[in-house]
Automatic annotation (TrEMBL):
Residues 486-508 form the Ice-binding protein C-terminal domain. Residues 1-26 form the signal peptide. NCBIfam families: PEP_CTERM. SUPFAM superfamilies: NHL repeat. It comes from Lacipirellula limnantheis. Keywords: Signal. The keyword Signal applies. This is Ice-binding protein C-terminal domain-containing protein. Pfam families: PEP-CTERM (PF07589).
């Protein structure tokens, strides 16, 4: 490639980034990197890439790899002291960030207003038995590149049973899949319930419930059942598990000395190993009166447990984060936290007469609610919330997108501006025939959306589309991950003429 062509290609990609309505993120990426024997490097490519290559020690030419198929790839170092970078490039004209030009009509179990449709690009395979679950309740992805399970996704299935169509017999517990939807730890159809915690008292379809993979790579699960209510934690390969909080169960009247009830969602920062473990929960039963306060009606509040290096199960008394009772006590709710410290809360309201999504500032004050925003956008002070039927919600790592799992198993995507949802820019991914119930949703580090639906009995992965570029790097001490809309000048030769042509097509569509 000549210098002139390289400069023209770089200019074309920069122009693409400037003209697309929202920022795009990498879809294909190198996950779960393993260095063995000093010089052998392997990794999992989550989906086929237009170009895949690596470079040693930050200098010299790129060495291409076969990116035509997803799965495990490998290469060799010249010496154990070598550093390396793995590059993955793709241009896709279909994805959830790209409008199709069509609209999605109002349906009883979806949004309350006609909404622009965005592209449905499925990068998982519905015919793969490992993506089939009869009773999925939670999904989360390990997004720290320095963790050994980077890119591994975890699914909570809450009841033993068989799937239809592609038949699979699954159990009540946790499952782990690589980024290419292969079996992460070789467990097949056998569920993992480390510590025998799920359904310990009695069986429930809400045990286990939502899950969250921490930055340390540990797998935390909420338990929404009355009998087994708690928060549980498991290690990366799901072989060791324990309860995080003292007391078991989630009755409407929390017993004295127990500081939790049934939890619907969890978010974790730090770890016990580093002495800075902080747990956030949404709790169906706990009120301020249970922790020395006055109110007996602030159920479904956001609670913070400063566990630190303390022993678990912990009996630490939590503090309430939200300054007002922003969620209804009877709603199925969800929780996420942005990079800027904002909290994102969601609840399932079919009528749309209450806020489906609430954003809190780090100090717990309300920064946004979707009911007020809907009425402002529609110019109608009595309008229903546009964001109704919100079964689950997640925020991308760069805090530029919110993904919403709708009851009818479609996925709504909303751009975030300074961490606040921009309802006018909302879109909906039509995932197929409407079927209740969508259950949980998550982003991976590259911006792909992962969701589970018990109605569809599926775990799926959706691509953002657009011009995408990702780099996974080893500096000799740790792994890191980054993405950009414009590749490094020294890697432009990866694109090729087909990639440049596709970039032009994406730009015309935008």
């Amino acid at each position: 490639m000549t210098r002139t062509l390289r400069l023209k290609t770089l200019a074309a990609m920069a122009a693409l980034s400037a003209t697309l309505p929202f920022s795009l993120h990498a879809a294909p990426f190198a996950s779960r990197v393993v260095i063995s024997g000093g010089t052998n490097v392997s990794f999992v490519l989550n989906e086929p890439a237009d170009a895949l290559a690596y470079r040693l020690n930050g200098v010299g030419p790129l060495t291409p790899l076969n990116g035509a198929t997803k799965g495990t790839k490998s290469f060799s170092l010249n010496a154990p002291t070598d550093t390396f970078e793995i590059f993955a490039n793709k241009v896709d004209t279909v994805g959830y960030t790209i409008p199709t030009g069509a609209t999605i009509a109002v349906v009883a179990n979806g949004l309350s207003q006609v909404t622009n449709e965005s592209g449905f690009k499925l990068i998982s395979d519905d015919t793969n038995p490992l993506t089939r679950f009869n009773s999925p309740r939670g999904v989360s992805v390990s997004n720290n590149p320095a963790s050994a399970n980077f890119g591994v996704s975890y699914v909570a299935n809450s009841a033993a049973g068989n799937t239809t169509g592609v038949v699979r017999s699954v159990g009540d517990g946790l499952y782990a899949l690589n980024a290419d939807q292969s079996d992460a730890y070789g467990y097949g159809n056998t569920e993992k319930d480390p510590g025998n915690l799920f359904d310990a008292v009695s069986a429930s379809a809400n045990s286990a419930f939502r899950i969250m993979v921490s930055s340390a790579g540990s797998v935390y699960s909420s338990d929404f059942s009355d009998a087994n209510g708690n928060v549980n934690v498991a290690n990366q390969d799901l072989t060791v598990g324990s309860r995080l909080l003292t007391g078991v169960g989630g009755p409407s009247a929390v017993p004295a000395g127990q500081y939790h009830g049934s939890t619907t969602a969890v978010f974790v920062e730090g770890s016990a190993a580093t002495g800075d473990l902080v747990l956030y929960t949404l709790d169906e039963d706990l009120t301020s009166a249970n922790v020395g306060g006055v109110s007996t009606t602030d159920k479904n509040s956001l609670w913070r447990y400063n566990i630190g290096a303390g022993a678990t199960p912990s009996n630490v008394i939590p503090t309430k984060v939200n300054a007002a009772n922003v969620l209804l006590s009877g709603a199925t709710s969800d929780l996420d936290k942005g990079a800027d410290g904002k909290f994102y809360l969601a609840q399932n309201r079919s009528a749309g007469g209450e806020a489906g999504v609430v954003v809190l500032n780090p100090d717990g004050t309300v920064a946004y609610d979707s009911l007020t925003a809907s009425r402002t956008l529609l110019g109608n002070p009595t309008a229903n919330d546009i964001l109704r039927n919100v079964l689950a919600m997640a925020v991308s790592a760069d805090q530029k997108w919110m993904a919403i799992m709708l009851n009818n198993s479609d996925v709504a995507v909303v751009p975030l501006v300074a961490g606040i949802p921009d309802l006018a820019g909302r879109m909906v991914v039509n995932t197929g025939t409407d079927v209740n119930s969508g259950r949980d949703i998550a982003f991976d580090a590259a911006g792909n959306i992962h969701y589970v639906s018990s109605g569809q009995a599926l775990y799926r992965v959706l691509s953002p589309g657009g011009a995408t570029y990702a780099k996974t790097s080893w500096n000799g001490q740790s792994l890191s991950f980054s993405m950009s809309n414009v590749p490094e000048p020294s890697t432009l030769c990866l694109l090729g003429s087909a990639g440049i042509a596709a970039i032009g097509f994406v730009r015309r569509r935008a």
